[in-house]
Structure formats: C-alpha cells, structure tokens
Amino acid sequence: MAVQPDVALIPRNVLFGNPVKTSPRISPDGKRLAYLAPVDNVLNVWVGDIGSDNYQPVTSDKDRGVRFYMWAADNTHILYIQDVGGNENWRLYATHIETRETRDLTPFDNVQAQIIEHDKHFPNDLIIGLNKENIQVHDVYHLDLTSGDLTLVAKNPGNIAGWTVDAQLKVRGAVAATPDGGLELLIRDSEQDEWRKLIIWSSDDALTSGPVAFTVDGQSLYLQDSRDANASRLTKLNLASGENTVLAEDPQYDVGHVMLHPDTRDVQAVAFNKDRVEWQVLDPSIQIDFDRIRDIREGDFSIFGRDDADETWIVAITVDNGPGAFYSYNRKNQHVQFLFATQPALEEYALAHMEPISFASRDGLTIHGYLTLPVGFEAKNLPLVLNVHGGPWGRDGWGYRPEAQWFANRGYACLQVNFRGSTGYGKDFLNAGDKEWGRNMHNDLVDAVHWAIDQGIADPKKVAIYGGSYGGYAALAGATFTPDLFCCAVDIVGPSNLITLIKTIPPYWSTFLATFHKRVGNPDTEEDFLKSRSPLFKADQIKIPMLIAQGANDPRVKQAESEQIVEAMKSNGVDYEYMLFPDEGHGFAKPENRIKFYAAAEKFLAQHLGGRYEEVSS
Does the keyword Hydrolase feature in the UniProt annotation (predicted)? Predict the structure, then answer.
C-alpha cells in the first residue's frame, strides 16, 4: 500500500532511540535541575542551574544507561539504580554532583536493592529494601548516606510483600501476602512494638487495594481500598478507632496517583485514569495552580516534582501527537517556563491522533481501548496491528506512544485494547480475567479485531498481533488458538508455557506466587488446565509467519520460553525469525538493541501487511 507522499517516514532512531532529554528532577533547594540525556549514546544524569546553559553530565554509565534516578535530600547527591545485562539485581549508587565521585551503596552480588522511602526532613537518611539474607524477600535497612552504613530496621519473616514508612522515617506498616492471594495490613506503633493485624483484603481486592502513606501525625493511614466497592477508593483509616473515611472515589475507575502535601501530608489531589487522566482536587489552595497548568497547552498533565519550599513544580504534559514536554511552574507568580521536549525532532513530522474507543465483548462487558490511524488515510479497510499491552495487570493509556506512531506512520491502524484483567477499571473487570489467559482475555482481543473489521476500519486479511511480555503471550496465543484471524505475529519476551513460566518466576516474587496461582493457575494442581492455555502445546496450529525476540538475561520470562516454541515451529516447518539479545533482560534497554529489533520487526510487518519501512543503512 502507498502512503501519501506528503507524510514523511519517521526515522526509527527518532522514534526509538534515546531521548534528547527526559525525566527532569528539581533539586530540593529549588536551585538546580537534573535530567537524563545521552553521553556517547548512553543515558546519564546531567545537572545545572535552573535557567542556565551550564548543564554537565555527573554520572558516567557506559553500558545500559541510567533510567531510574532521584535527588538525595541533601542537595549534593544523585541516587540511581542499575543492574547488569537486564538481570534486575539492582544496585544503588550515589554520585556527588561536584566531585563526580560515585559510590556503590549496596555492593552485594545477586541482591536486589529497592528504594522504599526518603524524606526532606532527614537529608542523610534513606530507607531501602535488600534481599541479601533471603533471596525471596526484602528486609528493610536504614542507610546513612554520609557513611554508607546499613542498619537492619525490619526483618521480613517471609511473607511481607511491601513496607510503609511514616513521616519520622520509621517502618510502621507492612503488607503480608496470604496463601490464597489476599493481603493483610500490619501496623505497629513504633519500631520496638509488635505488629498487629488491622485489615484483611481478600484475593478479589488484593490488586486494587493497599496502603498509600501515613498522615503526618502517624495516627492514620491513607489507603487505596476496594472493599465494599467495585473501584478502589482513597480512604483515611484511623489506626486507633478503625474509622475509614472515603476521601475520593469514582464508581467505575480505580484511584490512580495520589498527590500529598510534602509537609502536612494532606491529600491535595487524586488522579483517575479514565479515557484520559482526570484530576479531582481536594485542597482548594492548589486549585488556582491546576487551573493555570491546564492552560499551558492541550494535553494531560502530571506534577513531576516539587522543591522543598513547594514554590517550584516540575510539570509534565503529555499529548497524543507530539513529544512529551516539561515545564517549571512558579507558584508565587504563576509563571510557566518551558524546559524541554523529550524528542524535539518529532515536531518535524506528521503524527497521528489516538482516539479512545469502546465496544461490547461477546459476553457483555464494556471493553475500552485506543485507536491510532495513519495520517491522511480514511479509516477504511486498513492493515491493522493489534498491539497488546504487557502485565497483564496494567493498562494502556492515552498519549504519545512510540509504537502507535510507528505503526501509523508505516501505514497501519494500531488498536490497543484494555482487555479484562487490565487494571484501572475496578475489581470486577480485573477479576473477570482470573484464569482466563488464552480464553476470555484472548476473546476480548479477538472481539476487538472483529469490531474494527465490522466498523470497516480493518482489512480482515491483513491483521497482525504484536506485543511484549503478556502481549507476547497474546501474540503466541493468537497464532495458536485463533490462527485464521491473524496474518502474522510478533512476540517480545512472551511466555509460551504457563507451567514453566510460573515455576521459574524470580525468587523475589515469592510473595506474589499465590496471586499467579489465583489469577493464572497452579502448576502443582492444575497442570492439564495450564497446558490447555499454553501456546507451546498447540504449536502445531501455527501457520502464520512469526517474529520472536528475547533477552538472554530475562529473569521473568526465561530464554527457554521463546526457544521451546521456536524449536516447535522449526520442527513443524513454520516460517519464523528469532532474535536473541545476549545483553538484555525483560525488554530492550540499550538503544542499539531497540533499533535492531524495530528494524527487523518493521521489515517483517511490511512483508506481511504491505506497509512501508525504513531501509537499514549499511
């Protein structure tokens, strides 16, 4: 198919290469800004004075790039985590922004560090989790940033899935996993007191409930709580009386991001991720700020950071047809200053709009999703890529998505579906996905394709299924369970055998194992059931071309998950391509690997859907 000549081909490097700048973080004193930007094509942290052009790189990663970082509350250190080759054994590093000295604060082999809490009132202290004593669970340690000393403050008995720290930086809340996939909220009055059980969330409520934060006086706890409701509500639980007051709710959508005042810890605003993000303001003092931010430009916004004085906010604004943009906002004079766009080269190209859609599933559920159409084309008889999100306990949302723009620019309609089991739409919709891998979850995807065909949007002979992680599983399921619906499939780090997937989950997911058993199946008691939902055991049904990509170090979906179905396709004479990345894990962090994958995927899709592709330069 031909794309109109005035729609330029967007280079893969612009879509999938490193951003020019991203993830700005304001220093606690409000004087400096940090952001991520490449150094020799590797993302590192840059720091400079706000409003100046004196930014310099302070970290010196030369391999995978820094992706997760923050300011230390002392104003002088950048904290970041890094693993090796995608193995997710994160180490915590601190870089002094003046001397550039970098210290490994958790120098332990085969141990995963988690940042649990930091607070501006305790600038030299950090609360972190480490699984160095028991690889299956994380104990809690106090870290002295000055000396690097670690002190154990909470021992994990083996069932704690998460910890909550109060305003005094004391570990006073814990969430224990129960054998049936539920959760128990444990509280203690001080770090010297015994834990007591306060709330039990059943397995039906567990993925839509949990603690948010303590109030400043430590006497109450904010919760996301779906008990006695379909969608999770924001509540305030008095720890002494047990009174649980609803602060914000929506009948259909779960509570999303909760914005707390950094000093008083009062709830200021709550986000609900509907077709687009909608904010509910609870603190009238910030209403004028939200109104001013909404006027900056069309799009969905979030508060990306704030200084200690709460005078300067960093604002992120997302649009669907352009790069993400960041602004600083001064609350005293309501002045807005543009900081940067993540990938300004995108502004040179015609990008597509993402439209929210919904339809009824075959059994009557309302399924929501998003449709992105190629610029300049009538929504009629187009090749379609069904792009399935991972998780599956996550969701697609509105905004700029590189893959959606890539598909549209190459001449395809892109359909993203929040099938049952996706989060954000209340627990009834989430729980409707229990043990429905390869059946009703997949039926929702199939129904979405038929919706697009019935609307006249999709060419029924040119539909591809594409995705990563659970989306990769869905691609394999599409090729095996519904082989006549799709003309090709792309699987990125997707499991092919649910038995081996569950039996080889990372050891530090031990407290999540009961959730897998409830929502996917138990390989010890339901082996035949899990076989019936595993694409590997229906590999003889595959008759469409497939592209499979895998990271060799993936701790979640092991290399064998891809290679066992590749071997089955090879034995059956199926047309396939297999890409193994030896220095990647669950997804592709290094830009050169991403570009290599997308080049292969683009050519593969062009061969089978008829769209265009960018030639690989020699």
Answer: yes
Q: Which pLDDT value is given to residue 122?
A: 96
Question: Is 416 in the same domain as 439?
Answer: yes
| Pair (264, 400) in one structural domain | no
501 lies in the same domain as 373:
yes
Which residue of the set 77, 138, 368, 586 is catalytic?
586
Question: DSSP state, 208?
Answer: G
554 is catalytic: yes
> CA dihedral defined by 576, 523, 186, 394, rounded to 10 degrees?
30
Question: What's this model's pTM, rounded to 2 decimal places?
Answer: 0.97
Q: What residues contact 589, with CB distance under 8 A and at least 6 apart? A: 64, 65, 67, 86
Let me know if 142 is a catalytic residue: no
Residue with tokens 């010297």: 192
DSSP 3-state of 607: helix
- So what's the pLDDT on residue 2? 46
**Structural domain tally of the chain?**
3
Cβ atoms of 329 and 335 within 8 Å: the answer is yes
State CA 34 to chain mean position distance: 22
558 and 465 together in one domain = yes
β 413-418/382-388 pair status:
parallel
Active-site residue, selected from the candidate residues 203, 226, 328, 469: 469
Helix, strand, coil percentages, rounded to 5, for the chain: 20, 35, 45
Say which residues have a Cβ less than 8 Å from residue 577's Cβ, sequence separation at least 6. 545, 546, 547, 548, 600, 604
* 3-class state of residue 128 by DSSP: strand
- The CATH number for 249's domain is 2.120.10.30
Q: How many CA atoms lie within 13 A of 467 on its CB side?
A: 28
Q: Coil, strand or helix: which one is 358? A: strand
Q: List the domain range (segments joined by +) for residue 564.
A: 347-609
Catalytic residue from among 517, 554, 562, 608? 554
- Separation CA 474–CA 451 (nearest Å): 18
Spatial contact of 536 and 496, defined as CB atoms under 8 Å apart: yes
Is residue 548 domain-shared with residue 579, that is, in the same domain? yes
Where the chain has pLDDT below 70, the residues are 1-5, 618
Task: Determine contact, residues 506/563, Cβ cutoff 8 Å.
Answer: no
Q: Look at residues 24, 56, 67 and name the one whose alpha carbon lies nearest to residue 312.
A: 24
**Bridge partners for 368 per DSSP:** 358, 418
Last residue of a domain, one of 118, 153, 188: 153
How far are the Cα atoms of 149, 484, 600 from residue 546, in angstroms, in the given order?
Answer: 51, 14, 12
Residues 124, 47 within the same domain: yes
Active site residue 6: no
Q: Taking the mean position of all CA atoms in its chain, how far away is CA 609?
A: 29
For residue 268, count CB atoms less than 10 angstroms from its CB and return exposed for 0-12, middle for 13-18, buried for 19 or more: buried
How would you list the strands of the sheet with 354-360, edge to edge? 354-360, 366-372, 413-418, 382-388, 458-468, 488-492, 546-551, 576-581
Question: Distance between CA 102 and CA 96 in Å, rounded?
Answer: 6
- What residues contact 94, with CB distance under 8 A and at least 6 apart? 72, 77, 78, 79, 102, 103, 105, 145
